[in-house]
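Page 37, continued from 36.
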C-alpha cells in the first residue's frame, strides 16, 4: 500500500507548491492520475519513487517511510520495488533494446528470477518488439522507444509500476496492447499501477481516478497545486 500523509513539496526558486494531506493507494489497485499540465502529476510519481523528497510529511510504502530514507537507501528501494515508465523514456543510448529492457537485472543481480530467465521474450512479443531486440534507441521510433521503456518497467515484476503518459506516443492498436499488458501484469501478481495520463479514452479500465484539481481545495493555506 502507498500512503501519503501531510505532504508539502516545493521546487527551489519556484512558485510551484504541492500539498497532499492524505492519499492512499491500496495494493493491487489500478489508479489513473489526471489534471492539467504543471499541476504536479509527474512530481507525485517522483515522490512515490523516492527520486524527490518532500519538504514535510511522508511517503509510506508497505509500512516503510521511503521519504525518510537516505539517498542510497531510496535508490535501492526503487530498484527493488518500483518499475518506472518515464515520459521521456530515459533509455540508455549505448544499450540495445534487449539490454535496455534487461537493465534492472544488470543494476541489481538479486532481481534475477530463480529460473535464470526473465519475461523479456513474452513482453517483447506482446508489444511487437521481437524483431527490434538488437536495435539501439536512435534506431527506434518514439512509439518503439516507449514500448521498450514499458517492458523495462515490468520485466522484474516490481511491486509498483509508475507510468508517466505511457500511451502518449502510441497508435490505437499499440495503446490497447500496452494497457492490456499493464492490467494483466498487475492482476496476475497483485501489483499496484499508478498511471499519469491526459488521455481520457483510457480511463475506463482503471479502478480509480485521482483528479489533481481536488488538491487545490486541500492545501490549507498552501494553495494546493500551483
Amino acid at each position: 500500500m502507498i500512503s501519503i500523509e501531510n505532504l508539502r513539496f516545493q521546487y527551489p526558486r519556484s512558485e510551484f507548491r504541492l500539498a497532499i494531506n492524505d492519499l492512499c493507494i491500496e495494493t493491487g489497485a489500478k489508479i489513473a492520475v489526471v489534471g492539467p499540465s504543471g499541476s504536479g502529476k509527474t512530481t507525485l510519481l517522483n515522490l512515490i519513487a523516492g527520486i524527490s523528497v518532500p519538504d514535510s510529511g511522508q511517503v509510506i510504502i508497505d509500512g516503510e517511510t521511503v521519504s525518510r530514507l537516505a539517498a542510497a537507501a531510496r535508490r535501492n528501494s526503487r530498484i527493488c520495488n518500483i518499475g518506472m515508465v518515464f515520459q521521456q523514456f530515459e533509455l540508455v543510448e549505448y544499450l540495445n533494446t534487449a539490454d535496455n529492457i534487461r537493465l534492472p537485472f544488470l543494476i541489481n543481480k538479486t532481481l534475477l528470477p530463480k529460473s535464470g530467465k526473465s519475461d523479456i521474450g513474452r513482453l517483447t512479443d506482446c508489444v511487437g518488439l521481437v524483431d527490434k531486440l538488437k536495435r539501439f534507441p536512435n534506431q527506434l521510433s518514439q512509439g518503439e522507444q516507449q514500448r521498450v521503456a514499458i517492458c523495462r518497467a515490468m520485466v522484474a515484476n516490481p511491486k509498483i509500476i509508475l507510468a508517466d503518459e505511457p500511451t502518449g506516443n502510441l497508435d490505437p492498436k499499440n495503446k490497447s496492447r500496452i494497457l492490456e499488458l499493464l492490467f494483466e501484469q498487475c492482476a496476475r501478481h497483485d501489483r499496484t499501477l499508478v498511471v499519469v495520463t491526459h488521455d481520457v479514452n483510457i480511463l475506463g479500465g482503471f479502478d480509480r481516478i485521482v483528479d489533481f484539481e481536488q488538491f487545490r481545495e486541500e492545501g490549507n493555506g498552501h494553495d494546493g497545486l500551483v
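Residues 172 and 201 are 10 Å apart (CA to CA). Flag for discussion at group meeting. Helices lie at 41-49, 71-81, 97-101, 103-107, 120-126, 142-154, 172-189.
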